[in-house]
Amino acid sequence: MASKKPNVIFVLGGPGAGKGTQCARIAETDDYAHLSAGELLRDEAAKPDSTLGKEINEHLKNGSIVPVAITCKLLENAMQNSDKENFLIDGFPRNQDNINGWQKAMDGKVNIRCVLFFDCDEQVCVIRCLERGKASGRTDDNTESLRKRIITYNESTLPVIQMYEKANLVKRIDASNDVDTVFQDVQSVLSSIKSSN
Ligand code: ADP
Ligand code: C5P
Ligand code: MG
């Protein structure tokens, strides 16, 4: 992590909304590191010597949220191991526990620049995840896990987005459009943030 206080953009939206796809593109074109909370959890669970694998895998399959102490530590380590000053934190914070844990560990240490909210119809999200599931190897890209992930999203993550909306931090993007159109909208948001520096 650079010596300056890092800039953080939280990236939220339903399962399959396109968060990972867009973050990967941003990381290619702009000076951001892309940290996906879900990806970090999957990587940790896949380590043969991980003591957390069983617990994490249970949550992944059930679409429930892993305790923040685990997720936040993985994010913090990834930030510390990066030489970037700008971070896209994808899929976090997903619930109030995530917010509380982040505040405890990171309060005052980073600048939260905005929350990129990829807004996408539930049906479209399901179709995208099932399509992704044909090749992803993920244990949660199936109808049963998706049903649970959508409940978690509606019950736990939407209130987080609403809370950030009240704080005027949310940049909403219509994520049901094609990848290029969504990316153009993302770039407008990123330019508006840069110009407010
Ligand atoms: P998330 O990280 O939000 O769960 P992903 O970026 O992994 O979503 O995208 C889910 C699936 O949908 C992937 O297979 C991806 O290729 C596809 N996808 C992403 N964005 C779009 C889009 N705008 N239009 C159509 N398909 C998309
Ligand atoms: O964002 P992604 O779809 O990769 O997340 C997959 C799963 O990882 C979630 O359904 C959840 O079980 C877990 N996760 C979590 N806490 C986060 C992000 C993801 O528990 N902040
Ligand atoms: Mg993703």
Automatic annotation (TrEMBL):
Binds 1 Mg(2+) ion per monomer. Residues 36-66 are annotated as: NMPbind. It catalyses: UMP + ATP = UDP + ADP; dCMP + ATP = dCDP + ADP; CMP + ATP = CDP + ADP. Residues 131-141 are annotated as: LID. A ribonucleoside 5'-phosphate binds at R42, S64, I65, V66, G91, F92, P93, R94, R138, R149. Keywords: ATP-binding, Cytoplasm, Kinase, Nucleotide-binding, Nucleus, Pyrimidine biosynthesis, Transferase. Pfam families: ADK. It is found in: Cytoplasm; Nucleus. Its main location: cytoplasm. CMP binds at N98. Its cofactor is Mg(2+). One of its GO terms (molecular function) is nucleoside monophosphate kinase activity. Its EC number is 2.7.4.14. SUPFAM superfamilies: P-loop containing nucleoside triphosphate hydrolases. Consists of three domains, a large central CORE domain and two small peripheral domains, NMPbind and LID, which undergo movements during catalysis. The LID domain closes over the site of phosphoryl transfer upon ATP binding. Assembling and dissambling the active center during each catalytic cycle provides an effective means to prevent ATP hydrolysis. Monomer. Belongs to the adenylate kinase family. UMP-CMP kinase subfamily. Catalyzes the phosphorylation of pyrimidine nucleoside monophosphates at the expense of ATP. Plays an important role in de novo pyrimidine nucleotide biosynthesis. Has preference for UMP and CMP as phosphate acceptors. Catalyzes the reversible transfer of the terminal phosphate group between ATP and AMP. Plays an important role in cellular energy homeostasis and in adenine nucleotide metabolism. PANTHER family: NUCLEOTIDE KINASE. This is UMP-CMP kinase. It comes from Rotaria socialis.
